[in-house]
């Protein structure tokens, strides 16, 4: 009698938990398989998984009773994406560079239309404005983007065949004798002109910037200045 009561009490609780844990482990395994593959590999695995689900559903729906062999086919069709994904993700099947894996792919950068722009027309100083009419700047007053809370800048390299970038740190030294600080708030990639790039600090908001900060080119440290965030107008 006690066993019967125990079964009636335990099974309604244990079975759903087992099903949920199993489903979570299976879905998590599929997700990891997709993340550790390339974009093309992930799309292929997703297509195979969708095909396997449709195949198993149609096969199960067409048969009132499934024999051992047919159950094996259904199980194989359901597990194939997981097996293939794990084989590719662990390097057993094909070769995937770490930089190409979905988990390491850089997220799409959304650049606001009102992101502040700074440029380089020579290797002496930064400037603001269009090529040919770019005004030199060592004191850069910027208005924070109204479209984005995070610090976002656009860098234009007008100097053909020359590499430049922009790094923004806290202000070391003084305004009269500025130098890089110890904290980097944002940094663009090094680009060869003529070209442009955007750089976004995903963990720094405009409100996080100090009243005065330092900007410079890592390739040409003599290109530098002091920046400030100002209100509109």
Keywords:
single chain, 233 residues, alpha+beta, five-stranded mixed β-sheet, 3 helices
Count every beta strand, where a strand is a DSSP E run of 2 or more residues: 12
Helix % is 25-40%
Structural class: alpha+beta
Sheet having the most strands? 5 strands, mixed
β-sheet strand percentage: 25-35%
Low-confidence blocks of residues: none
Query: Taking strands numbered 1, 2, ... along the chain, how are they ordered across the largest sheet?
Result: 3-2-1-5-10
Mean pLDDT: 78
Overall 3D form? elongated
Span between termini: 83 Å
Would you mind describing this structure in some detail?
This protein has helices at residues 2-35, 39-62, 68-89; strands at 117-120, 126-128, 135-136, 139-142, 150-157, 163-164, 167-173, 178-187, 191-192, 195-205, 213-216, 224-229. The chain is built from 3 helices and 12 strands, in the order H-H-H-E-E-E-E-E-E-E-E-E-E-E-E. Helices cover 34% and strands 27% of the residues. Helix 1 (2-35) packs across helix 3 and helix 2 (39-62) packs antiparallel against helix 3 (68-89). The N and C termini lie far apart (83 Å). The chain is an alpha+beta fold and 233 residues long. The mean pLDDT is 78. The strands form 3 sheets. The chain has a 5-stranded mixed beta sheet, with no helix packed on it. A 5-stranded mixed beta sheet has the order 4-12-11-7-8, with no helix packed on it. The chain has a two-stranded antiparallel sheet with strand order 6-9.
